[in-house]
Amino acid sequence: MSESQSPNPQKHPLSNVAKYSLLFTSWFFLSAISFYLGMNLMQNSGSTLVLKDLPKTGNTNPSVVEASTPSLGTPSEMETSDQTESKPTTSVEEEVMETPNFLPDENVSFRSSAWSTDWTAMKKTVHLYNEIHPFIYTMKGGLSNNGELISSWSSSSRKERVQELRALNPKVKIIPTIFRWENPKEKIQENIGMGGRNDIRDHHIQVIVNEILTYGYDGIDIDYEGMSCDKKEKFEEFFAQLAKEVHKKGKLISVAVHPKTPAEKSKRKELHCRGLSKPIQLDFRENWRGPTTHDYEFLAKHADRVKIMAYELHPRKYHNPGPGPQAPNVWLKDIITYAKKRVPTHKLYMAIPTYGYDWALNCKASAKAIYHSDAQRIKAGVHKNRQPTDINRILNEENKVASWKNLSKFSDIHKNRAYEDPSLWYTSGGCDRVAFYMNRRAFEEKMNLLRKYDLGGFSFWQLVTDNDPEINVYLSKLVQGKIPPVEKAKEEEEPKEETTIQNLESKETLKVSDSKSKQKSNSKTKQF
Predict the structure, then answer these.
(1) Is 190's pLDDT higher than 60?
(2) In 3D, which of 168, 79, 504, 103 has the Cα closest to residue 311?
(3) 456-468: per-residue pLDDT in tens?
(4) 3-class DSSP state for residue 225?
(5) Which of the two residues, 503 and 488, has the higher pLDDT score?
(6) Staple partner for 419: which of 165, 238, 247, 389, CB 3.0–4.6 Å?
(7) Range of 97-111, 399-413, 482-496, 510-524 with top mean pLDDT
(8) Which residues form the GH18 domain (predicted)?
């Protein structure tokens, strides 16, 4: 038998070139498959990294585009988003939440609620709240709008997370927020029917209602801020029609409004704003554009909840009025005095900040947001802790009036006031600083004030993982109706003389930034 006829012919080994070609082809093929699977996993998760121009396949409401974390709110909120996203992924075992041995009492007269972008915090503490506002929606479009929405949660996440929250607390009401702050790059125009675009307004309403029904929400929270005065009547028309459609479905509607304090009778006036059928009655001190569009009395007729954003009395973006607490009781009391005459108390909620600010006293260093962990870090060093905080007394005791120029020039506005809010006075990088923050003692005093006036409840801006854990101990008693009653306050008359600091703007415009302290671009404290 010849060699060619042999049943076991000799095999020739592959050349080196052929081997490398085969290896390269195999590596390329496997890499392509891995890339494809990875992209699909990212797009189907709740933390997409890229804003999509089109909804994903399977999105039950094609008018809602799924986005990465939208440019949301206050310094606190933006910083919390960064901190949360930078943490390593936890295992399934670590994510399992302990089931509490109680649930909120639905019949409590004073209810707890919170806005939040922190999913971990929502899961961990949902049993402490009667209502949760996932801060997940904004408007699609900038200077013009088409009625559609953007969500920071994917379609699948919206379904799964609503189910998960209800499993942890079957009694909680889930009322997501739609947020937009007006600034040079973002407007609230056609969505409320400006420019004769009632067709877009009606589409916007239908998109919102569809979203409520699709994901089984208990309602919707409207947070349209910083609007110019010419939008007042169109906003009211939009809100009234939206409320009608939401109520038809047996759902709730909530509205977030700018804080107002009563003006002295001698200083009340009318604002004639172009495009309105009648002048705006300025019976409040805060005469900038935002509050002029939020008519408490009108909105209360249609809303189930009116939530006053009572924070940013001392914004970090402004040089005036300098360092101070964000929501002291002396200011809250004035806000309540104004609101109670225009909003039924069972609908009236006061929104309280969970953050504070840390200011430089004698140098040009920027102010920064401060949370529980920040306060603990400062306490670990050399510092003076004050609570209550009497700024004028501190200035006299420390004999620092000459050097603390960032504070001393505003000392007059703090006269005869001792704030329940705590403060930390310390030195860092050669600069004297003061940090106002929130702890349980200050929170309890604020809650006692709100309960004295029989308000419907409070809202946190915002619920984050880095809040003082002792506040949760208090909340567990509050939602079970175990907090002792307080003596009810007498009916307050609106002041004849000016007694309060004029708050500048309740929220900052928002701007997506690549730093930890993402602040809004133009002026406010909450923004998509």
Answers:
(1) yes
(2) 504
(3) 999 999 999 999 9
(4) strand
(5) 488
(6) 389
(7) 399-413
(8) 104-481
May I ask the CATH class of domain 111-355+437-480?
alpha beta
Beta-ladder partners of 252: 219
Written as one letter, the residue type at 459 is S
DSSP tag of 49: S
The amino acid at residue 56 is K
- Token pair 């790059």 is found at 185
Structure tokens at 509: 């415009």
Q: In the structure encoding, which two tokens stand for residue 184, read together?
A: 């040079």
Q: Which pLDDT value is given to residue 388?
A: 97
CA distance 66 to 85: 18
Residue 394: pLDDT band by 50, 70, 90 thresholds?
Answer: very high
465-480 burial code (b ≥16 CB/10 A, e <16): bbbbeebeebbbebbe
Rounded to whole angstroms, the Cα distance separating 432 from 514 reads 28
What burial letters (b/e) apply to 402-432, b meaning 16+ CB within 10 Å?
Answer: eebebbbebbebbeebbbbbbbbbbebeeeb
Residues near 250 by beta carbon (within 8 Å), at least 6 away in sequence: none
List strand residue ranges (DSSP E) for 122-247, in order.
131-139, 149-151, 173-174, 177-181, 219-225
Residue 31 vs residues 22, 25, 28, 82, 479: alpha-carbon distances, Å: 14, 10, 5, 30, 53
Distance CA 84, CA 143 (A): 30
Phi and psi for 372 in degrees, rounded to 5? -55, -50
For residue 515, CA distances in Å to 120, 147, 296 come to 22, 31, 37
Beta-carbon contacts of 140 under 8 Å, excluding residues fewer than 6 positions away, are 65, 146, 148, 149, 150
Identify which of 361, 336, 503, 499 has the alpha carbon closest to the alpha carbon of residue 423: 361
Q: Name the average pLDDT for the chain.
A: 81
Whole-structure pTM value: 0.78
> Between these two residues, 394 and 30, which has the higher pLDDT value?
394
How many whole angstroms separate alpha carbon 348 and alpha carbon 305?
6
What tokens appear for 150 in the block? 């953007």
- Domain ranges for the chain, please list them: 111-355+437-480
Give the count of beta carbons closer than 10 Å to the beta carbon of residue 481.
12
Amino acid found at 373? S
